[in-house]
Write a structure and sequence with these properties.
This protein is an alpha+beta fold. Helices cover about 20% and strands about 40% of the residues. The chain has one domain. The protein contains one helix and five strands, in the order ββββαβ. Strand 1 and strand 2 form a beta hairpin. The chain is globular and about 40 Å long. The chain starts with a strand and ends in a 13-residue tail after the last strand.
């Protein structure tokens, strides 16, 4: 899933994934003029809380979210 935030001509992208092999969630944070950061979480509630915190931080820094994707549900990872 991808979240996009805009401010002037700049874009911040948050990309979330679930790695079935490692059984962990990840978020890649791609900021303008910076090396992408990747954070990994084994527990869905921690991952979800981090996504919400990132959204709030970006909005408080005057980034405007374009669209509103749904956070991956905890049962999405399958069996």
């Amino acid at each position: 899933m991808i979240w996009l935030f805009e401010r002037a001509e700049q874009i911040v992208k948050l990309e979330t994934r679930y790695d079935k092999k490692r059984k962990e969630y990840s978020v890649a944070i791609m900021r303008p003029d910076a090396v992408p950061e990747i954070e990994r979480y084994a527990i869905f509630t921690e991952f979800h809380a981090r996504i919400l915190a990132l959204e709030q931080q970006l909005e408080s820094d005057h980034w405007r979210q374009t669209g509103r994707p749904t956070v991956i549900p905890s049962d999405w990872c399958g069996p």
